[in-house]
Amino acid sequence: MSDNPYLEGNFGPISDEATAFDLPVRGEIPAELSGRLLRIGPNPVTEPGPNHHWFVGNGLVHGLRMRDGKALWYRSRYVRDDQVCETKGWPKTPGPRFSDLGGDGANTNVIQHAGRTFAIVEAGGNPFELSEELETVARSNFDGTLPGPFSAHPKRDPDTGELHVTGYFFGWEHLQYLVVGTEGRVRKTVDIPTPGRTMVHDCSITKNYFVVFDTPVLFDPSMLEKGYPLPYRWFEDYGTRVGLLPRDGEASDITWHDVNPCFLFHSLNSYEDTDGRVVLDVVRHPKMFDVHLDGPNEGIPTLERWIVDPKGGPVKEERLCERGQEFPRIDERRIGKPHRYGYCGAVGEGLVYGGLLKHDLKTGETLHRDEGPHRQFQEPVFVPRSDDADEDDGWLLAYVHDAKRNAADVVILEAQNFLGDPVATVELPVRVPFGFHGNWAPDA
Ligand SMILES: [Fe+2]
């Protein structure tokens, strides 16, 4: 037994890659679901050191391939960073590197963009391009157009198909706004100076603004000397603020707006109201990496609404839901536009995974899907029934840890029958360790 909770139970790594074909299905997979349900998380390939942090494990990407109502295959594959290649005796992964200093792997999100699949991470590591079957192809800098680090949280504008991103690196005294075009090349960068070297996990967009977060989790090189692999910690006095950068503007156009000190990993969404104010829904953590330096565990994360007037004045802060929750997702056709529904993982103290929450932000109603403590949902992903279906008309897909089987299911729910029986459950033969993010990668 380890005394690090992020190495125990279903946080713990699985021993190797897995491959399985024609998986058993209860119910019926909707014929419209033709593509891959991708997911990624940390899976240390060697025995971690004494100060192991959940965020630094080598990336293991998971995929379930569905077509014609069948679950054709499940695969898990390491993202082939240097440590993985060395440990496994595999050839080194080719491709450009921005820096080796921030770690050279990718473990936080996996996306499909411009017809390619990328495992991605923040703070310095390059994206890794993956094959259809999740084998590592090469590190990428988007055909030479990515000048620095990328991020694990691009936001895709549903009207243009472009990705909007905050990049950061501990060696930089600025953040970097990036826009990646539909052909997979960076077409715009804006360097945004900040007073400290802050950790910025996510971003948000509205019709006219790119929304930047500046929070009190800062780079602290002394942590490296003390043997902590993730050299970021809480500095209360730094403050927390939201930046609004006009999407067609430059760094001097940004306005900053203070909020009560807190940390956030994730935004649910943001949009502009009829008065031109930015309505920003986020999952707010009261602190981060203050006492607990092995993972995100500094109090209950709650769903909050911040209303920011670009012209200035205090930000209106309102709690929308006080239950513990993380991994907020919406129907992504609503990114940057008014949204009614939000879907989150229900989490307890210490980010213990549980059921799912569905928020109706018009009525204020929250539904809680709870299948018992032995059924722990990871981040839900919404897939619309068709391109022109209404918001919320589609499916929620999630990897679920079944503690009785000690293996994962992929559960497919009708979003509009959130508490009802799943339309389909696919049984995987192995565990999928608790990890970070994933997406639906539809067939072209
Ligand atoms: Fe994230």
Explain this structure.
Strand 11 and strand 12 form a beta hairpin. It is built from 2 helices and 33 strands. The mean pLDDT is 96. It has a single domain (5-442), classed as Neuraminidase (6 Propeller). It has helices at 82-88, 222-225; strands spanning 18-21, 25-27, 35-42, 59-67, 70-78, 109-113, 116-120, 128-130, 136-139, 155-156, 163-167, 174-180, 186-193, 204-205, 209-214, 217-219, 232-234, 240-246, 255-259, 267-272, 278-284, 302-308, 316-321, 325-329, 341-348, 352-360, 365-369, 375-377, 381-384, 394-402, 407-414, 424-427, 437-442. Helices cover 2% and strands 42% of the residues. By secondary structure, the protein is mainly beta. It starts with 17 loop residues before the first strand and ends with a strand. Strands 2, 28, 29, 30, 31 and 32 form a 6-stranded antiparallel sheet that branches. Residues 152-153, 201, 265-266, 436-437 line the site of fe (ii) ion (FE2).
